[in-house]
Amino acid sequence: MILSRIAKKLTRSNGIQSLMEDLGSAWSGSTENIAFLGGGNPTRIPEAETIYRKSVESILTSGKSLESLLGDYTSPVGSDETRQLTAEYLGKFFGTTLQGNQIAFFNGSQNAYSFLLNSFSGTMEDGSFKRILLPVIPEYIGYADQTWEEDVFFANLPIIENIGPNRFRYKLNKENIAWETIGCIALSRPTNPTGNVMDMEDLEWLYQESRKNDLPLLIDLAYGNPFPNLIGQKEPIQWKPGMVLSLSFSKVGLPGVRLGIIIADTEIISVLSSFAAVGNLAVGNWGQALAKSFWKEDTLIGISNHILRPYYGNKLQIALEIIEEIFAKYKVQYTIHEPEGGFFLWIHFPNLPISNIELYQTCKKENVYIVSGHYFFPGLKTQFSHTEECIRLTYCRDRKEIARGAEIIARIVSRTAK
Ligand SMILES: Cc1ncc(COP(=O)(O)O)c(C=O)c1O
């Protein structure tokens, strides 16, 4: 069988695939002795699930909507009515007035990104070749394999700030960006994998550059404001022309619904709508129905601020305490990226004598699943020790699982230390 180049590219082992395979094999056997610290699944929180159940039940019992939900295609990026209601509802959280034609729904924000990244990178209509600027890497694993053309990412070495014992932070490096080769800018805020929440002044600098160079500025708010709002004390994003914001229902605890929302200028929404018509025919109906119900009841804001933020804040503190105690016991040399938001801990082991891929493989043999950090640096051409010395862990697991995982990681790292 001869495969196309794009099929070949996708079937090469990539980060997302290895993560999803781990998830599958970990869950298919006994889970008793497994520490699954790899995935990005939100925690199932019964308090939030009860509220979601009520929303679904009210949709099921209201008039004819179930038949229409099951029996009708909607438009490629959602019904006009739901888009308009969404614009009116979300505008106030982004400090602006939005219109329905500035909103588009997709089957997950991952689905939206595959269209966005391919709209603004690769071979352009004038024959030029443009890249996607990832302003601070490490960046989300899910962008890397989405593009149909090769070598489309551009990334600079980040600045590293040491901000306390065993804590550091990546910061935007404004030097040496080849603006004339860039087609768009993409960042997640908070960033998966590091938990970085980009400072407002850096974001404003990027925004001004994006306007000067006529580039869309894509900001992925999967973990950001207004839901699930896991941004700690950092300032929320406000929408401005030229920005493309993406929201997701996944990290509030509804990854099975597959709903992503894009907020952008109408010109960009109409490009995305063409992609959606060809690639999806239409976005699914359940997510839109839930959106309408959520906006009416202000559901997600309440859940985010009163359930998710306290829950994840508490989980994070517990995980940090466990990891710090165990790493100290084994005298592990490490620093953790300041966890400002999101679900993950990004850990750097300076002078790690094995690579992070070998660390991942050794941990896996002991039923501890982590994600090797090497996946998260697309577009970086400069040598950088962090590409081989970092790992990502989710902190959304229970105490015992985190302790077991931390103990095994600490044992392996200290055993192999120089
Ligand atoms: C930063 C980020 N963006 C986007 C996504 C995709 O989310 P979904 O397609 O479920 O909306 C994820 C999922 O893990 C993510 O971590």
Automatic annotation (TrEMBL):
Gene Ontology terms: biological process? alpha-amino acid metabolic process
Q: Which GO terms describe its cellular component?
A: cytosol
- One matching Pfam family is Aminotran_1_2
Keywords in alphabetical order, please.
Aminotransferase, Pyridoxal phosphate, Pyruvate, Transferase
MF annotations from Gene Ontology: pyridoxal phosphate binding; valine-pyruvate transaminase activity
Domain Aminotransferase class I/classII large, residue spans: 182-409
Q: Kindly indicate whether the keyword Transferase belongs to this entry.
A: yes
* InterPro entries named in the record: Aminotransferase_I/II_large, Class-I_PLP-dep_aminotransf, PyrdxlP-dep_Trfase, PyrdxlP-dep_Trfase_major
Cofactor(s) for this UniProt protein: pyridoxal 5'-phosphate
List its EC numbers.
Answer: 2.6.1.66
Name under which the protein is recorded: Valine--pyruvate transaminase
- Origin species, per record, is Leptospira ilyithenensis
What's the source species' lineage?
Answer: Bacteria, Pseudomonadati, Spirochaetota, Spirochaetia, Leptospirales
